[in-house]
From TrEMBL:
Region described as Disordered: 1-34
Name used for this protein in its record: ATP/GTP-binding protein
Sorted UniProt keywords: GTP-binding, Hydrolase, Nucleotide-binding
Residue stretches spanning the membrane: none
Residue ranges, compositional bias (Low complexity): 1-15
InterPro entries linked to this entry: Gliding_Motility_GTPase, Gpn, P-loop_NTPase
The keyword Hydrolase is assigned to this record: yes
Family of the protein in this entry: Belongs to the GPN-loop GTPase family.
Gene Ontology MF, one: GTP binding
Length: 226
């Protein structure tokens, strides 16, 4: 499968919205796993990052057309005093390598989704996951907002475009507005910031639509730059 530039692989309609939007509306439910089209020839790599327990595995699982690859293991006493689990009393498993899923962008182009492990002791894997990445999604939990700072820092270091999605957990019904979150994370205005529910497939797809639109706009801006 070839690797090409974003502008060569994505088409848009007159409104500028990519064809992932129609896919988000018509794709089968998660229980119907879709085989890769024989016409698929271009793969685009997307990384989902964020703090521990923020919902990365859940997002990849909810949007993937295939049965996602998960490297979750049961948490043990070995992580006590090392892993930051405050506010995550119900969390019993953790990703130890990465999650992997796939979703079709067009018949010939697919997004490959990689969910990065959130625990600090696995952050050394992130730079390797970022290699060849077209763009990224940073998931945020407003109860532990500082956990996403490292992800944003590494993405900016690698000059990887990204969007920020606030995964609203139960009990967080807008305690912080998006403008307040943007200010807290020191996000520039050109970086998309949206709400999401990682458990809901349509919401997860909307996050990917937002990222793809952002990448398309950046690609068009580069083309217009003399």
């Amino acid at each position: 499968m070839d690797s090409v530039s974003f502008e060569d692989s994505v088409s848009s309609d007159s409104s500028g919205r990519t064809h992932l939007e129609s896919s988000a509306r018509t794709s089968a439910e998660p229980s119907a796993r879709t085989p890769l089209s024989a016409a698929a020839e271009t793969g685009l790599k997307i990384v989902v990052v964020g703090g521990f327990g923020v919902g990365k595995t859940t997002l990849v699982r909810s949007v993937s057309e295939i049965r996602p690859l998960n490297t979750e293991e049961v948490m043990t006493q070995a992580g006590v005093g090392i892993d930051r689990t405050a506010g995550l009393a119900d969390k019993s498993t953790t990703t130890v390598a990465f999650d992997f899923g796939r979703i079709s962008l067009t018949e010939r182009t697919v997004l490959y989704l990689f969910g990065a492990p959130g625990q600090e002791r696995f952050w050394f894997l992130w730079d390797r996951l970022f290699a060849g990445t077209l763009g990224a999604v940073v998931l945020v939990d407003t109860r532990r907002m500082s956990d996403c700072w490292y992800a944003i820092d590494r993405l900016e270091h690698h000059k990887t475009p990204f969007v920020v999605a606030v995964n609203r957990f139960e009990g967080d019904t807008g305690a912080f507005s998006l403008s307040e979150i943007r200010q807290a994370l020191a996000l520039s205005e050109h970086i998309p910031l949206i709400d999401c529910d990682a458990r809901v497939r349509s919401s997860g797809k909307n996050v990917l639509i937002t990222l793809v639109d952002h990448l398309y706009e950046l690609a068009m801006a580069r083309e217009m730059t003399p």
